[in-house]
Design a protein that fits this description.
It is a single chain. This protein is of the alpha/beta class and 387 residues long. 37% of the residues lie in helices and 19% in strands. Helix 12 packs across helix 13. The protein is globular and about 60 Å long. The two termini are 25 Å apart.
């Protein structure tokens, strides 16, 4: 058994409250997943991410493959033990990162040849290799290897890319079915009860594999992609290739189209979105899982999220630029209605000082607040969707 998904309540708009049960723990959905690209939610320690009540995080296959290497992580007992994270985790396939290396890659039916952004060394990712790397990493959920198409792209180019994604998804599934028992949870180090790893907990369990709906910004291709992937009967489904420069209304349209086709009894995940008001909107449409680097990336650049009315947690989202001179003597917290450890202790004036001084603590505190803001938003949405 790899995954159980139990829908507890559904609204007229399609939003649903559910529980996703994975080998490393239960996840309440809809959920926002902080991104831990290199086995770290950037600048934020694992214990703090736990205190913020993140039940699942995401790690990046491409980056961990290049450094420190998936085989090293497997020898350490898998990515959970390697980074000391005891809760659930998802790994992406590496497809989007390879896609972003447009000048350093060559695509064929077999896979993608690319050069490392670190040292220029040559590598090759096939669907099978992506599965092997993800199995070695050992996250609870892994993704099929897909090709992302640029935006804008012609209908013909998008159709051909989608066909490649479907072929790679079938190959990914085949490899996963044949090798999923090789998960590193069986490694002696992963059975270290002293550090909270109970071997009995993982008996007979393996990773779940999600398909990825592509199709660019073309409604007919999006629908076809969803239908083709549903035929593969995977444990869950993601909607990929969005938030790459298209207008927000187009993003919403593509999500809605896919949701019409994807099974209602399986988790549905939109990859790489978005601002707090966007993730709230998509959750109320029926999306169960979302991730984005924005909370920590924005925090490192001095952009903080607050509410227009701090006491009304449903009021409009306001973006606060902590770098501005206006904050130099502002003794208020970032958000007077926020209960996070940053808002309970530090002032805007101090956070601006940290940023202006180039102090690393500033990036950490800003990131913690933004993560708390996102996770609080999803907690409220779950309450509104019902118990």
């Amino acid at each position: 058994m790899s995954l159980e998904f139990q829908v507890q309540h559904t609204t007229e708009s399609g939003g649903r409250r559910a529980q996703l049960s994975l080998p490393h723990g239960d996840v309440q959905t809809p959920v926002f997943m902080p991104v831990g690209t290199a086995a770290t939610v950037k600048a934020v320690p694992q214990n703090v991410v736990e205190e913020l009540n993140a039940e699942i995080i995401l790690a990046n296959t491409y980056h961990l493959y290049l450094r420190p290497g998936h085989e090293l992580i497997a020898r350490a007992g898998g990515v959970h033990r390697f980074m000391s994270w005891r809760r659930s985790m998802l790994t992406d396939s590496g497809g989007f990162q390879v896609f972003s290396l447009a000048k350093l890659r060559k695509i064929s039916a077999d896979g993608v040849e690319f050069r490392s952004h670190l040292d220029g060394s040559k590598h090759f990712f096939s669907p099978e290799h992506s599965m092997a790397v993800q199995i070695a990493l050992g996250a609870d959920i892994m993704m099929v290897f897909d090709e992302c198409v640029e935006t804008p792209a012609s209908w013909e180019r998008t159709r051909d890319s989608m066909a490649l994604t479907h072929a790679w998804a079938a190959r990914s599934k085949k490899y996963w079915e044949e090798h999923r028992h090789e998960v590193p949870w069986t490694h002696p180090l992963a059975r270290d009860a002293e550090h909270g790893y109970d071997p009995a907990k993982f008996a007979g369990k393996h990773q779940a594999l999600f398909g990825i709906v592509q199709g660019g910004m073309y409604p007919d291709l999006r629908r076809e992609s969803a239908e083709r992937l549903v035929e593969m009967d995977l444990p869950g489904y993601a909607i990929g290739g969005l938030a790459v420069g298209e207008p927000r209304e187009v993003t919403r349209e593509m999500i809605a189209l896919a949701l019409e086709v994807l099974p209602k009894d399986k988790p549905r995940y939109v990859m790489g979105v978005g601002y707090p008001d966007e993730i709230e909107e998509y959750a109320k449409m029926g999306v169960d899982m979302m991730d984005c680097v924005l909370p920590t990336r924005a925090g490192r650049h001095g952009l903080l999220f607050t509410r227009q009315d701090p006491q009304d947690r449903r009021s409009a989202v306001v973006r606060l630029n902590i770098k501005k001179q206006d904050n130099a003597e502002d003794q208020r917290p970032i958000d007077e209605g926020c209960q996070c450890m940053v808002c309970q202790r530090y002032t805007r004036a101090y956070l601006r000082h940290l940023f202006a001084s180039g102090e690393p603590l500033g990036a950490t505190l800003n990131s913690i607040h933004n993560l708390a803001f996102y996770l609080e938003t999803m907690e409220r949405v779950r309450r509104e969707l019902g118990n």
